Amino acid sequence: MVPAKTGWIILVVISLVLWVSFSWAGQIKHLVAPDSAADCYACHKKATPIIAENWYESKHGVILVKCFVCHGQPDGQGSVPWAVSPDPRIVCTKCHDPAIKRMKAKFGLAPKCYTCHPFHQNSLHHRAYSKSQSKK
Amino acid sequence: MSMKLTRREVLKSAAAASAFMALNGTLPDLAGAAPGEPDKWVKAVCRFCGTGCGVMIGVKNGKVVTVKGDPNNHNQGFICLKGAELPSIVNATKSRVTRPYIRKNGQLEPASWDEAMDLVVSKFKAAIKEHGPTSVAYYGSGQALTEESYLANKIWKAGLRCNNVEGNPRLCMASAVGGYYTSFGKDEPIGCYDDIDAATCFFIIGANMSECHPILFKRVAARKQADPNVKIIVVDPRKTNTARIADIHVSFKPGTDLAILNAMAYVIIDEELDNPRFYNKYVNFMTNDKKKVDFKAYQKFLQDYTPEKAEKISGVPADTIRKIAKIFAESSATMSLWTMGLNQRIRGVWANNLTTNLHLLTGHLGKPGATNFSLTGQPNACGGVRDTGSLCHLLPAGRMIKKAKDRAALEKQWGLKPGTIAPKPGLHTIALWNAFSEGKIKAMFVLCTNPAQSLPNVNMYTEGMKRKDNFMVLSEPFMDAETVKYCDVLLPAAFWCEKRGVYGCTERRYSLLMQAIDPIGECRPDVDILLDFAKRMGVDPKVIPFKNVDDIWDEWREVSSATPYNFKGMTRARQEKESGIRWPCPTEDHPGTCHRYVRGEDPNIPKDYKNKMWFYGTKDGKARLWMRPYAPAAEEPDAKYPMVLTTGRVIDHWHTGTMTMKSPVLRRSFPNAYVEVNIDDAKKHGIKNGDNVLLETRRDKMIFQAKVSDVCRPGLVFVPWFDKNLIINKLTLNAFDKGSKQPEYKICAVRIKKA
Asked: Residue B560: exposed, middle, or buried by beta-carbon count in 10 A (0-12, 13-18, 19+)?
């Protein structure tokens, strides 16, 4: 019979391991082929197929705004900081600054661009502003 | 051992773990300043392609920290993935040349500026003394600033009396220059980017816009999204990403586009979609041997190019040729866009002419959206080299060395003694490097280009660079550029935003790049290096009187004012305020010109001119339709080498990769060159994706990893040329267009086998 105190310690350790593995797993996977780590689409076609296809079919995909332009790289190298959810002030403004300023003047500013604007699923084929539902 | 945990306790710890995870993923928002917000934004132009996007460089504490699009330039704030990575390239200072070097016993040894420049000047002086001014040369670049090219051109042609001034635009745009010149009597496009927003049909031929002109591709795609009735035709032996937005992609046997273009003209006339009102007024019909004939003669010429005959030559079904010809002609405003697929050919000028012919036949010219628009590859081939006349046969603003009248006019403007400018044109790029490789050119000044990787059939030229009896000084920012291996003196050039000056992009727009940071180490802007060279060479200070880059701009502005280029209205003050202006721009209050040759838009045409259009570059004011035949490539596939090798770019890399490979992101997006093989060809050769493949041409052989896809048509392989460890130009050939002297990078014969 394990004393209750030990049980709690084990539980905390498990939680910490879970936390570490969730936040670091993504980065560890990218160490497998570091030389081509910025060719995200090549692997993510299989790893996260729905997001990858959303991007490919979107305006960003057609005009080759590749993943790293917005997300950077998992090891933080390059001109854009690594972020699963990019900071619009750093990323979106690189290209969309004029539109952001226009929106701010007309409607005030929604703090997060992607409350309205789909980032992956900005399609050429259907209505511009359908929000992305995909998690994977 | 067992543990009793209540459900509550499990949930509590799970919540704690989630809280930790959430801390990593807080969604940031637009309110408030971004982390690392710059102290100042400096206006400039992107370092890369001929699109010429305006950029704002974010500087914090004297360092470039970010970049965004200039909202006021034509790109309206947008930039592509290479432009976005400029900060990491600017900050790759460990890879920079930061001081001069002199090669001693095979190794580059650090030297002072005085030592290096004294050596350079002694070599040039000795060569000129012993062998005359034609034994030296300058080889520049479509990536140098306009003021740098203008200055070098003047130093060599007026100062040293040497016409051996060339540059890498000879390798990319010469055929477009030749095309515009033979069709209209003057170089440079008639239309501008605004035409993209008005066109109802895009005819994209020999151009992979999505990877080589991304922001213009975006503009074309946006045009189609705004109006789905807009038609896009992409003509390319590769089904590139550009073809994704095409209504029709036409694949054809490489080199046979000449037959297809003539066949389209045949169909246009046969379907009675030609525009006699336009060509009777504005077009002379010219045979290939320069005889002026009539429309009937042109119809007779086209009998060899019925769609069925063109199908036999090109592999394109006759019905497809009919279809695209009709779409081209029936659309209300058709815009043709092309780049290296047409230019880098031994028939490059012809390919340009034949594309322009379709516009002359249909009258798709001079109206919004209707124009024959050559896309320029480099950021400053137009403004820097073509317009300043920094080629062996040219003088600034379209004047020609061989014309005594032109030499005299420039001599007067430059205050030179009559006869200063040598009457014989110099050597064009291939002839120049041939001569250098034979030891006939003794001293060459190479600036802002990487010929040891970019010249075709390059082994020949790197061998020539190894000779002991010739001397090469190289001005280069990056230590690992291939040409550094062969230079005798290496000078540390200031990089892109460490200096100020003008870039002139594809649409005749001249934009000022402001300086964002100081040059690092002992680097100097190329203008300063060239002024120093001129001074030490003893060039008359009245010929080279400039104190700084702005002086040079002012003189060039003044020189242009006596010609149809006239951009006198682009004062430095105006350039600092605005984000690029299109020439002609004769006065300070002139907004710049969208369409040349059109009354009411082109300031060179009187407002009350009798006709709507005036091609004032020709004697009779008419354009010329040239009857160019189909002729094969220099090296067609045969039994021994049965496939075609073509080369080109990928979006991730610029040219020889000296810059883009410094970005850890761009490098890892496309780390090595590979060979693109068609699925059927791969099956035939037993090649699977990722296999090593040996490519062999008559010149060299090389192993690449295969990428098997349906991009290349069967019989064609593609290799990008950015990789200095896999220099595909060792395999290409240096046959060149007799008119433009541009080499045929796009077609040579190759055989492949699994390695």
From this structure: buried
Q: In angstroms, rounded to a whole number, what is the distance separating the alpha carbons of residues B145 and B552?
A: 11
User: Strand pairing partners for B41?
Assistant: B58
Handedness of CA B151, B376, B329, B289 (dihedral sign): positive
Question: Between chains, do B3 and A73 touch, taking CB under 8 Å as contact?
Answer: no
> What's the confidence (pLDDT) of residue B19?
44
Domains of chain B are 40-95 (2.20.25.90), 101-171+380-493+525-564 (3.40.50.740), 174-378 (3.40.228.10), 643-754 (2.40.40.20)
**B77 lies within 8 A of chain A by CB:** yes
A67 in the same domain as A119? yes
Verify whether the Cβ–Cβ distance B86 to A79 is below 8 Å. yes
Residue B415 CB neighbour total at 10 angstroms: 12
DSSP H stretches of helix in B446-505: 451-454, 458-465
Separation in Å, CA of B423 to nearest CA in chain A? 48
Q: How many CB pairs under 8 A join A and B?
A: 159
Q: By the CB < 8 Å criterion, does B15 face chain A?
A: no
**What's the rounded Cα separation, in Å, for the pair B597 and B371?**
12
Q: Say what percent of chain B tops pLDDT 90.
A: 95
Edge-to-edge order in the sheet of strand B292-293: B292-293, B283-286, B623-626
Helix runs in B670-710, H state only: 679-685
Element (H, E) at A70: helix A67-71
Could you tell me if A41 and A20 lie in one domain? no
Q: Residue A5 is part of which domain span?
A: 1-32
From the list A10, A14, A64, which residue is nearest B210 (CB)? A64
Q: Total structural domains in chain A?
A: 2
Max CA distance (Å), chain B: 106
Q: Do B34 and A19 touch (CB under 8 A)?
A: no
Q: Each residue of B669-697: pLDDT tens digit? A: 999 999 999 999 999 999 999 999 999 99
Does pLDDT of B2 surpass 60?
Answer: no
Catalytic residues of B: 82, 172-173, 340, 377-378
Question: Is A112 in Cβ contact with B27 (below 8 Å)?
Answer: yes
Kindly report, residue by residue over B414-469, the tens digit of the pLDDT: 999 999 999 999 999 999 999 999 999 999 999 999 999 999 999 999 999 999 99
Pair A61, A16 in one domain: no
Q: In chain A, what's the furthest Cα-to-Cα distance?
A: 67
What type of residue is B639?
A: A
Question: Is residue B366 helix, strand or coil?
Answer: coil
Q: Do both A5 and A60 map to the same domain?
A: no
B9, B67, B71 member nearest A98 (Cβ): B71
Instruction: Tell whether B98 lies on the interface with A, counting CB pairs under 8 A.
Output: no
Find, among B378, B369, B343, B375, the residue nearest to B507 by Cα: B375
pLDDT at B33: 67
> Which one-letter DSSP state was computed for residue B398?
G
Q: Which of B28, B214, B241 sits opposite A89 (nearest CB)?
A: B28
Answer whether B668 touches A (CB < 8 Å). yes
pLDDT single digits (tens) B580-598: 999 999 999 999 999 999 9
**Mutate which of A36, A40, A64 to disrupt the B interface (most B C-beta within 10 Å)?**
A64
pLDDT value of position A32:
67
Residues B471-495, mean pLDDT to the nearest whole number: 98
